[in-house]
Each structure stands twice: as C-alpha cells, then as structure tokens.
Amino acid sequence: MKSTHTDDATDLGELKTPGKWQGLLAVFNYRYLLKLIVSKDMKVRYRGSFLGMIWTYIKPLTQFFVYYVVMGIFLGLSKRGENYALYLFSGMIAVNFFTETLRQCTRSIRSNRGLVKKIYLPRELFPVSSLRVAMVHFYPQVAILFIFCVFSGWFGGVTPGRILAIIIGFINVAAFGLALGILFGALDVFYQDAENFVDVINMLSSWVSPVLYKWTMVAAVLPHWGLMIYLLYPVTASVNLFQLGFWFPTTSGTEALPPHVLINGGISMVVSLLVLGLAELVFKRLEGRFAQEL
Amino acid sequence: MAEKKYAEKEKFDKKAALAALTPLEEETTPLMVQVNHVTKKFRLQKTVSLKDEFVRRLLRRKAPNDNNIFTALDDVTIDIHEGESVGLIGLNGSGKSTLLKCISGVQQVDGGFIKTRGHVAGLIEVGAGFSNDLTGRENVYLNGAILGMTKEQIDAAFDDIVAFSEIGRFLDTEVRFYSSGMYMRLAFSVAVYSNPDVFLVDEVLAVGDEPFRKKCAKRIKELKAGGTTLVIVSHSTKQILDFCDRAVLLSHGKLIADGPSDEVLSIMLNRRVVKVKEDED
Known about the structure:
The structure holds two protein chains of two kinds.
Chain A: H1 9-12, E1 15-16, H2 31-45, H3 55-74, H4 84-111, H5 113-118, H6 125-151, H7 154-157, H8 160-190, H9 193-208, H10 215-219, H11 224-232, H12 234-247, H13 261-287, H14 290-293
Helix pairs in contact in A: 2-6, 3-4, 4-6, 4-8, 4-9, 4-12, 8-9, 8-12, 8-13, 12-13
Chain B: H1 2-11, H2 14-19, E1 31-43, H3 50-58, E2 69-81, E3 85-89, H4 96-104, E4 111-117, E5 120-123, H5 136-146, H6 151-165, H7 180-192, E6 198-202, H8 210-225, E7 229-233, H9 237-243, E8 246-251, E9 254-260, H10 261-269
Parallel strand pairs in B: 3-7, 3-8, 5-6, 6-7
Antiparallel strand pairs in B: 1-2, 1-4, 8-9
C-alpha cells in the first residue's frame, strides 16, 4: 500500500481500546517476551541450586523407584504384566506433566501480580509461560523413557498409529492442563482456595489414572457409562495414549489396553480443546478485574 | 512574612481564575488518547470467607453493604493529541493514577470509553518488571520486551540504555545486589529508551541523585521535542511547569480544570503560579 503522508494517523494505526482482551492466540505476538519469561522462571526456580536442572531428572526417577518398589514389588503388580517398569513410567510422565502444568498455571497470575497490576500485557502470557516451563521439565522425562523403551525393543513394535498416540496424548494433556490452569489461575486472583482445590484435583488425577494399576481393575468396578467417562477423562486418556505409544510396542502385544485408545484419545482431545475455550471465556470475564483485585 | 503570604493568597480568586481559564487551542495533530466520559468505581470490600459468612448468618447480622463503592473517576473527558504533553494534577486520591492505569489498559473503565493510538508505554512504576534473580543485562532485555520492544530494538538501544543508567561494570551482576539507586536508574533507562508513541509517567521522576534527575529531565524533553506524546502525573509544580504545556486538574475523580499548565496549577494551589522561561542548559 502506498502511504500518502497526508494523514499521520494512518502511520500509527487506528484508535484502539487499551487493555482489551485479545485472547489466547495473542500470546503468539509476544513470543520473544514469552521466551524471556520462561528463561527467567527457570533461573528463579534453580537460583542458588548447585545441581540445577539435574533435579528434573532426580525427582521423577526417585518417584519412579518408589512406585516401582512399593507397587510393583511389594504389592506384586509387576508380576501381572510385561515390562511393568515401562508401563509405570509412561503413565507417570503424563500425569506429572499435567499436575505441574496445572499447579504452576494456577499460581501464575498471582505470582506475577507486580506486572499484572502495573503494565498491560495479555494476561494469558503467564499461564502459557508456566506451560512452557512444565514442558521444559517434561522433555527430559520423555528422553529417559524413550531410551529405556528403545533398549526394550520399542522399534520392533512401533507403528505410525502408536507415534500418533504419543502426539495426541501430549496435545491432550497440555491443552487440558492449560485449560484448567487458565480457569483456576483467574479464580485464584479472587479466592486463593483455587490453589488448594487444584492440589486436590492433582492428587485425584494421579491416583485415578491407571498409572500404577491396570485399567481392567477399574473396568471391574465401574458401570459402562462410568467407564466411558473415565476413559475420556483427558488425564486418563493421555495416560493410555502414552502407554500405547511407549510401553505397548515393547511388549509381545498380548497385554490389554482399553479398546479404541486412539479414537477415545482423539475425542478426549476435542473435549480438552472445548474446555480450553470455555476456560478462556471465564478468563475473559474476570481478567479486567485482575489489576484491582490483586 | 506570614502576613504577606496570607495577603497574597487573598488576592487570588479561584473562581475567577477558573472562569477565565484560557481555552485549549484547536489541535491539528491526530488524536492519541481519547478519554470519553470515563467513570471508574472500586468496590471497597474484602473477600468474605466461609467462616465469616457462617458466623454472620448465625448471628443474623446484616450483610456488609454493597454501597461501599468508591468512585475514583467520575465522568472525565480529555482529548490528547500527538505531541502534546499533559500533566495530570490533583491531591492524593483525586484519581490521577487510576486514570493513567486506565489509559495504559491495566484497568478497565466502568463507564464511557478510552481509546489510544500507537504504542502506549509507561513508567507507571519503575522496575515493575524487574526480576531480582536476573542480571542487569537480562533485565534490560526482559523489561524492554515487557515495554513492547522487539529484540532488534533492544539490541539497537542497548548501549544507550547502559550508558544512560551509569551502572557500568555491574551490568552482569544480579540486580539483587544493586543499590536502590542503581536499580531505579537502570529501570528508568530502559523505559526512556523504549520509544513509545505515548509515554505515561507516574511520579517517578524523583529517581536518583540530582545529576541523574537532570539527565532524566533532559531525556524527557528530548522525547517531547521528538514528538512523543507525554502524560505525566506529578505532585511537583516545577516538573509540571517544566514538561507540560497543558495540565488537567482532578479532584475526587472529577475534572475541575483543563488548560495551560500555569493557569491550572494556580487554580490547584490557590495562588498565582508563573511559568518562567528557562534558559537552555
């Protein structure tokens, strides 16, 4: 377009309402800032720490060994199926990713109140940066799992569908964690109960999902419709998807996973994205009051 | 001496001054900030806990009244054009800072509307985006990005920012170890080099020692000369006279006067204030 230079106003754009809600996608316009906030969060997290990022390996491995020894050996679950260790680890990383995303997103608005109160930025920037930090902690766990899978013959059983399962599982759990995180992050501004509530959701999600035990144990006690809801619950669905993608290829293929893991996972992902949309609507209603409530 | 002062005060007629206020000249430059019949209210109430609510019902007490509403801005209308520098003045609690926060978008108005054009950035509070755990260098980048600069813009302005802040060899030290003066200087430097189209300044020009304050004043005047639109909140008569051609007086959220800064200041202070033409330093 040719600028005629008769009207200076065109150079500066239209008159706009300041601080108007722009939606989650506006965060993409702030990629550079997002990157800086994520690296700041990482630095703050490991400030004064000698081991630093090594903790992201130590913590899940410890958790894994505790689970494995207690559930697998003491309670004898490891004898009930092939490669119990990989079964456990596949589900565990999905749940860990979810719980960390949700916990950090929920705190993100309140803990950045200095900025929220003083300078206008799309407020979704803070939950999204928490999601990114959780991803930084998630990837090393995937890497460890992947290495163990490869040594257990993963390449012998992998199919494109199973790789797709991992991708859908990741998107599903990230979208669901972010959705609840945005919702409770906004509510946390008004009632700090949100943080405690989220701890409860996290605890339930970790124990309800078939990470330590087999889904058949749940199927035995739930009615059919209850089982459907159970399998579509995004955290459960992602656990199953990760098991299908990481653990299942290492087995002889006779192990039981719930029927239609991939289809259920796809439906569950759509549900997660819808929940994300709903959470955004709530966020939109509340975010105008953030600055004065904090 | 005291008597004389009293006499001077007597001579100034506030009402007459208000009536004789020089009308604003018609501006030909584009409108940058449009504040249109803006009202902003705050609810002065704490969060209620379940326990409090339960005890209240048990004792059959009345619910805390919802009338506890504070009107921070009441039907305020101001148009600010490109290149203008406007001072917002008034006593504490008059709504100046609230208005600035509404213009920056941090707070939303309850009635009327505000529109802005171009890139609006502010020195609402120096160092709001600073992180103690980052070095000076990292904070320059983080804050530049918060103020809406791209990486390229920060790279280009980086040397100027560091030179302006005078923090020298502490650049790669975590800002937690900075003295409060150094901290403020660095934060201020980032803000004054963020090159917004509309620059909002809230009572932050009292930064650092005398030489640094002079430098800041000089930089603000440079911005003004370069066509940046300024909106300044200040309690300092001198600063308002120095930086602003126009001032807006607010009292209890209402707009009392809008006109040439010396005249409006006179009305606020209830005494004649004269703008002294200063020499170029």
